Amino acid sequence: MGAQVGAGARSRTGARYEFGILGPLTVVRDGERVAVGAAQLRVLIAALAIDAGQVVGVDALVDRLWGDEPPQGARNAVQNYVLRVRRVLGAGVLLTDRLGYVLAVAPDALDAHRFGVLVGEGRAALAGGLPERAAELSGAALGLWRGEALADLPAERFPDVVAVLSEQRLAAQELWIDSVIACRRPADALPELRRLTELHPLRERFWAQRMLALYRCGRQGEALACFRRVSELLAEELGIDPGAELRSLHQRMLTAAPELDPGPSDISGPSHPVPAAPGNLPAETTSFVGREKELAEAGRLLERSRLVTLTGTGGVGKTRLALRTAARSASAFPDGVWLADLAALTDPALLERAVAESLGLRDQSARSAADAVDDHLRHRRLLLVLDNCEHLVDAVAALVLRLLRAAPGLRVLATSRERLGVPGEHLLRVPCLTLRDGADGTPSEAVRLLVDRSTACAATLGAEPDDRPDRQGTSATAELCRRLDGIPLAIELAAVRLSSLTVEEVLERLEDRFRLLSHPRAAAGPSPGRYRNTLRGVLDWSHSLCTPGERLLWARLSVFVGGFDLRAAEAVCTGEGIAREDVLDLVDGLVHKSVVTVEHQRGTGSGGGTSRRTVRYRLLETIRQYGTDRLRAMCDDTRLRIRHSEYYRSLTTRAAAEWCGPDEVGWLVGLRQELPNFRSALDFCRLHPDRAQALTGTEIAIDLMRSRCWFFASTLGEARHWVDTLAARLDPAPDEPVAVMAATVSAFIATLQGDHAAAAIRIAAVCPTESTESSESTESTEGESDGPPPITYIKGVRGLLMRSDPACVRQLALAREGLIAAGLTGDAHMATMFWSLAATFLGEAAEARAVCDLYVAEAEAARAGWAITWSLWTTGLTELLHGDPARALMPLCDALVRQHSVGDNWGPAWTLETLGWTIGALGHHTDAVVVLGTAHGYRRVTGAELTGLRPVAALHDRTTTAVREHLAAPAYTAAWERGVGAEDGIALALGIAHEVFRRTTSGADPE
Fold first, then answer.
1. What is the mean pLDDT of residues 56-70?
2. How far is 920 from 892, CA to CA, in rounded Å?
3. Which long-range contacts (CB under 8 A, 24 or more apart) does 972-976 make?
């Protein structure tokens, strides 16, 4: 075995850090991504991480940060950056040395170091005649890459590092291909070789490998055609002939040299007969797609443990993965790899005999089959694959324990939907196929499988076939794979249907997926393996393995969409057959049977609270639909949906009541996780005929707005849709609290969207004295304090945003007092924020600073993380309009970093806008337009509009008018489009702001 490569290293404080440069820079602390927003800080971390554990001189850091043109005081700037990095990373990681700075972690904290170690071990394995091991190690090394090295940092800062890493990556790809071909699996290397020769057409080594792989697949004509093609490329591009390796390989192919024979011969040595390895593994009849990570992990586990069990939901591909893993590990077992398929075995008493038969034993003595297997295995080194153990778990566990004790050279690889529970067992949960494309554009595993299997069925995935199958019907194909949860069995059954239906037609019929995704031959009648031919059959099998309580809970859990936690399951699913105290054990049973998936997340449970690591559960959509069918068959779905909606109403009520406090960010994260459940509950309340459910749904929608969830995780358009749709079923009476709040929320959203006419209508419905006109001449906020505090509040907001009426300052102050008196702390906080904005936009400097200071003090006293980001924004805005614009940069950048760190989608739209005004006020016209473009991109997503938000629109227009005086139209357009199209607008804006701050403080000219 090679040296084990750790995944990260601990700092002096005990935290485990990982740094990634094989792709965009990443920093991970104790398994959680650390957000590093400022571009220069990312450059500094990368420069230190490249030499992790070694001292990096200040001059070297200056060179990385600024190249050949460092600013005056660059060494002091490095010190400032180091302080900021320490705040980001935590104590004990970035240390000071008399010669410079050192990232105090072991070298293996860097993914590039682990990559190098794995490649070195792979080379040694191939040289030592272990191609399977070499392929596994080099594949694991390549799996560490996430795109181009340091792709998110300026290329000119790390040209040496990027060039070396890129060459090492190509060399590792060559090693992996050599290893796979040496394993007599040339077909597995061809897709990658096709891609590599397209990307690197002048790299002759890839062409040589492609020729050899084609030749060994029996495709000699295509191999010779490759030689002609590369010869033409080299002549056209460089004016040279192919090198010696290509010429020699071509000549040997023309003469059919025996060492090139595609049979069982060494890749570089002479042909010689190889005796058939003992065992009974079946030959593969279809291609094996993806699973590189799982194959590598299964191989590593087999080296370390004598019992490895692959678990996962039905149809996820456990058997196929086990067989491929066993085949790749065969060289380590001189007495062979043996498969015992237990799917058809129903009597546990016959288990030992079935295993004996699979091992080829024909013992006719009076002793038991178990004794015969013991004696057979006692002095042998072999791998026993036990497939489909879930219905015989107890019997299999007892036999495996006995055999492992009797035969020290035995290793067991089992597949089961439930773990065996044997001492020393190592579990590998087999996930569904990946659904996201690779960073280099490689299609996801699920799409690749669908393309492969549909091609085998002579099906076309797109209306306009491309010469590259993986590009056909891209969006619809990916959506089909997503809807099928990436389950291989479901995808393969869908591929069969694609011979007679289009992808879009299959998508339209997925509501009846269990009828749709059945193998046509299954209709001919039952057979012993029929359950393998239908998706419903696979799930029926899983259902039959569950206890009655687990089956009932499975059905009830189907009311949850997207995921749930234990608290939610206990609240919704208990009663009439399930006691609350039994839910945990039943969920645990469903987890062990691979029905429920466990997801460890950083966030909150459905009860909110401080952000921490939590456990959530999820049913794959296919499994959830099966449970829904069972629940409907029980005629219990409506009752459970009502309990589901009531639970989520209580959750949003708590969130709104506890808003603006130390758990604020935790609530935001928790509510965002539950959005699929909220939407499901809202839709149920919309369709249910009872007014009580309409009331429940309206309260959910309102409280999601009061807790800022719609701002944080969705769009204003969705919020307005739910509030208006559900509130329309209620009586819009002035004395109906829910109706008043619904009108307030709807009017508030409409105001932010610039739809003032709709806002006026909503207010008038619950406030008869209010005019439905939206013009300035018919409405004034002066002296208006009649009506409940929420109405006073929305009138003040409209006075600010619709008319820029100075009287709104007083209106919002009164609203704040009324909301505090009513105990509506979170709503009062929002009134305070708008009061501060009104004073800043429309008041004098002294008043603006006083109210801003009050708002900041309230947010900090409440320790409300999200509110603090807005207090920083108002601080920057106040400084911009009533102080020094240069002093506005830092609070605005701080707000932006904090908003990004908690995943806020709404706040950055306005912080970026204000940052653009500030940069424009400082005379950096091109940069201002870029940042304003990023703000526009965020507003476009959230649904907010500048039109109709008078004070905001006025400052925007003032800024754009000023910068247009200094920029030609093409330059303005280019800068705007750069901002709008930025992949990471926040990182771009922070980098610009940092440079503006540096130039401003150094006294340099703006532009």
1. 87
2. 14
3. 972/929, 975/926, 975/927, 975/929, 975/930, 975/933, 976/929, 976/930, 976/932, 976/933, 976/936
The three-class DSSP label of residue 829 is helix
Q: How far apart are CA 867 and CA 848, in angstroms?
A: 18
Torsion angle in degrees (nearest 10) through CA of 343, 346, 347, 348: 40
Sort strands 307-311 and 425-429 into parallel, antiparallel or unpaired.
parallel
**Alpha-helix residue ranges (DSSP H) falling in 808-903:** 808-821, 825-842, 845-862, 865-882, 889-901
Residues whose CB falls within 8 Å of the CB of residue 67, separated by 6 or more in sequence, listed in order? 156, 157
Torsion angle, CA of 627/632/634/637, rounded to 10 degrees? Answer: 90
Q: Helix axis angle, 186-199 relative to 204-216, nearest 10°?
A: 150
Question: Which tens digit of pLDDT belongs to each residue from 164-179?
Answer: 899 899 999 999 999 9
Percent of all residues in the chain with a pLDDT value above 70, rounded to a whole number: 88
Short-list 547, 472, 946, CA closest to 751: 946
User: What does the H/E/C string look like for 43-80?
Assistant: HHHHHHHHCCCCEEEHHHHHHHHHCCCCCCCHHHHHHH
Phi, psi of 386 (to 5 degrees): -105, 110
C-alpha dist (Å) from residue 84 to 36, 78, 669: 10, 10, 26
Query: Residue 324 in contact with residue 295, Cβ under 8 Å?
Result: yes
- Rg of the chain (C-alpha set): 33
* Joined tokens for residue 564: 């749930």
Q: Is the CB of residue 179 less than 8 Å from the CB of residue 124?
A: no
- Return d(Cα 850, Cα 809) in angstroms, integer: 13
Tell me phi and psi for residue 596, to 5 degrees: -105, 135
Question: What is the Cα–Cα distance from 227 to 241, expressed in whole angstroms?
Answer: 11
Distance (Å, whole) CA 342 – CA 389: 6
The token pair at 848 is 């603006």
The Cα-based distances of 809 to 840, 842, 847 in angstroms read: 10, 8, 10
Sequence-separated (6 or more) residues with CB below 8 Å from residue 592: 418, 419
Distance CA 78, CA 101 (A): 10
Tokens of 250: 């071509």
Name the token pair of 939: 């507003």
Model confidence pLDDT, tens digit, residues 320-341: 899 989 988 888 888 889 999 9
Beta carbons within 10 angstroms of residue 813's beta carbon? 17
